[in-house]
Amino acid sequence: MIYLADCADDKAILANIYRYQMTDYGNWPLFPGSTKFMKSESPHALHITVHVNSMAFDAIESNAQAMPNGSIVVADNYNDNLIIESILMKKKITNRWFWGLITPNGTIESAGFDSNNRMLVECINCHSTAPRDFTHLWQSEIAPNQ
Length: 146
Description:
alpha+beta, six-stranded antiparallel β-sheet, 3 helices, globular, disordered C terminus
């Protein structure tokens, strides 16, 4: 069995996730408690819409300590005219988050598991301060990042 974590090309991993696991993410539920086009802060765009797959949604709704492997969180970033500027995603694989940045036309800009990728350092450093599982919207002090 080949695990995604064993693949050398992070952009190929993200292309696979985007092509085969995120095709209908716009129909996934919103992150519980969030809204479409909610105001955001830098470094994200002015507005974001955050979708989660069913695994992530169930973990959030059940107040789990962390999201299970296979959970996907996708944030569409919009400018002030509500035109999408970028798609940010993370997927839990082998108990670690795999991060990705995709353009609106589907071009993979950056992808990876850790801060060895210079484009992802800011994402990972900021999200490491989140109250739970590297996810700022998941407001709970029950479980620090796991």
